[in-house]
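INFO  loader      accepted 1 record
INFO  loader      residues=240
INFO  predictor   begin
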Amino acid sequence: AGGLPYIPPLRFTWLTRWYDFLIRWTIRESTFKRRLLAQAGLRNGDRVLDLGCGTATLTLMVARAYPGALVAGVDADPAALALARSKAAQAGLGLQLTQAFASSLPYPDGSFDRVLSSLLFHHLTAEEKRRSLEEVWRVLKPGGEIHIADWGQARSRIMRAAFLLVQLIDGFETTGENVKGRLAGYLEGAGFAGVEEAARYDTAFGTISLYRGARPLVTRGSIRRPRTAPPEAPPPPPAR
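INFO  predictor   done
INFO  writer      dumping tokens
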């Protein structure tokens, strides 16, 4: 939007300062984010990434609830990250906040036990969704989990109509897959196991869905591609 390589939280950069206020009072933010934390089953000592951390509301919730965890946040939007750093400083909490795209994460393989994400994926195109989930798969440890809160399938005409405002703000291309309930399919396509929609919340602007998935302990190749049969052994040489 506006020539930027990313979509700001409310589409326009000048609205970012109002993001926390609007989200807090319109879409039951504290309710679904507390549920997301409970769902993630975090422990002190875990390494946790908030993917698309925005102004770091969820990142700070994790840091406060699990002071022994290593908590990092990543987002492409410098204006949102500036607010995030200000909030972290005011809270006296040290967070690792990095500017980067979800589709190109600056972390080594197997860096995190959990990846959390709130209201990011509806900003991404289909290709960006795929690439970002492949990156999440890469930076998770085997057995690690991803937990997502984002706009989900509208299961009533009222919720579908309510979501039209979000689509007008954030774009029909990026939000269309969400409202059709296809995010779980993207998780499965990236190789995650045990994928499910764990909870749903109706809000003034549509349905928020909570998803989960886990990186299997076995190798990715054995999950996504069937093993091919080994070549047949060559026939023995003729007897002399």
